[in-house]
């Protein structure tokens, strides 16, 4: 499974779920990379660990079949593609990335061996299409030849063997996992009816804010200046006629963290808002600007963009996402079951 994330910090949250169930993926272009600079940084500012040196040394054996550090690094790149951009993996995440990649390549090998045992077949037509699609990943013939030399010793037959292996893995997972994971319409409806609480949503307000926030423990003069700024901002806010006009004013005048997003706090639950803000919002219509509100030493004003009453999302609204979520959950469960079953009959050595 290729996990694409916007920042490395998010990977910390996703790794446990991603590694809980291992899955196979199709062959991908994953050329090896040089060792990282000791000062290189990953997304989020985390220092990177130097990439592994590829020696083709075994890192695991599955029923006697060796899996090498080349296989492992290829999978690590699939999990964390940022490594190519930053010449290495974040030091704080590299052990978990390596652990997850090792689990994945072992699982793929177990599935591949099971597919061979069952005599799963790949037609010549399917093989040729897969090879053509794989070659299309390369931007030029030269790039392809360099890849072929680097990864397969220049042997196209070795590359075809890799592709066939991937297709066999894909075929077995399709029959043992994907085909069994799809919930029926009746099952989706039954889940919805039994779990209505999951589809309830609270009363909420969509607002944009402009806040004037003086320093802590302000002097009388600072308080006076904060009030002057608040009155000036409020006068200008009342003159705005649209989301954009209010937002541009927020970017210019507001001291809160949302000023960089045009003051837009999106949809905020009623329970999360100060009582003074809720009271004002309940008396407003969408598009109106609130009175100037004092909250301790701070001042705020907001534009109400929408008021949504509490309710329950209908089955028609959620059925597509619910079906998808149920299928993903079953996929993970079935993969986990398959992984456990195959390991029970296998000899797996981690080196």
Shape: elongated
Secondary structure: helix percent: 40-55%
Please indicate the percent range of residues in DSSP E strands (runs of 2 or more).
5-15%
Radius of gyration: 28 Å
Major sheet summary line: 4 strands, antiparallel
CATH class of the largest domain: Mainly Alpha
**Whole-number average pLDDT?**
85
Structure description:
The chain folds into two domains: 8-184 and 326-350, Triger factor/SurA peptide-binding fold (Orthogonal Bundle), CATH 1.10.4030; 203-309, Chitinase A, domain 3, CATH 3.10.50.40. The protein is 52% helix and 15% strand. It has helices at 8-20, 69-79, 82-86, 94-117, 124-135, 141-152, 156-181, 185-194, 220-238, 243-253, 275-282, 315-344, and strands at residues 48-50, 58-62, 65-68, 88-90, 200-201, 204-212, 264-269, 293-295, 298-308, 311-312, 348-350. The longest helix has 30 residues, at 315-344. The two termini are 23 Å apart.
């Amino acid at each position: 499974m290729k996990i694409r994330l916007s920042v490395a910090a998010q990977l910390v949250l996703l790794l446990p779920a991603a590694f809980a169930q291992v899955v196979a993926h199709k062959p991908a272009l994953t050329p090896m990379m040089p060792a990282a600079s000791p000062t290189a940084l990953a997304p989020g500012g985390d220092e990177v660990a130097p990439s592994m040196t590829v020696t083709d040394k075994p890192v695991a054996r599955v029923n006697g079949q060796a899996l090498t550090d080349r296989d492992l690094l290829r999978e690590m790149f699939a999990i964390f593609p940022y490594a190519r951009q930053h010449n290495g993996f974040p030091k704080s995440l590299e052990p978990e990335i390596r652990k997850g990649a090792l689990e994945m390549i072992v699982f793929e090998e177990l599935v591949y061996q099971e597919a061979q045992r069952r005599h799963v077949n790949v037609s010549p037509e399917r093989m040729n299409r897969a090879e053509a699609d794989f070659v299309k990943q390369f931007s030029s013939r030269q790039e392809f030849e360099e890849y072929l030399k680097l990864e397969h010793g220049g042997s196209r037959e070795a590359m075809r063997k890799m592709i066939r292996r991937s297709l066999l893995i894909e075929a077995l997972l399709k029959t043992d996992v994907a085909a069994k994971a799809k919930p029926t319409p009746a099952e989706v409806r039954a889940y919805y009816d039994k779990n209505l609480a999951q589809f309830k949503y609270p009363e909420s307000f969509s607002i944009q804010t402009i806040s004037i926030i003086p320093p802590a423990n302000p002097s009388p003069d600072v308080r006076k200046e904060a009030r002057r700024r608040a009155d000036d901002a409020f006068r200008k806010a009342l003159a705005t006629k649209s989301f954009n006009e209010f937002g541009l004013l927020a970017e210019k005048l507001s001291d809160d963290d949302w000023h960089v997003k045009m003051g837009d706090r999106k949809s905020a639950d009623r329970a999360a808002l100060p009582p003074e803000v809720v009271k004002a919002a309940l008396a407003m219509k969408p598009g109106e600007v609130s009175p100037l509100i004092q909250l301790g030493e701070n001042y705020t004003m907001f534009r109400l963009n929408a008021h949504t009453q509490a309710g329950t999302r209908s089955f028609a609204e959620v059925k597509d996402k619910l079906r998808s979520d149920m299928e993903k959950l079953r996929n993970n469960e079935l993969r986990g079951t398959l992984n456990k079953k195959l390991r029970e009959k296998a000899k797996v050595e981690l080196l």
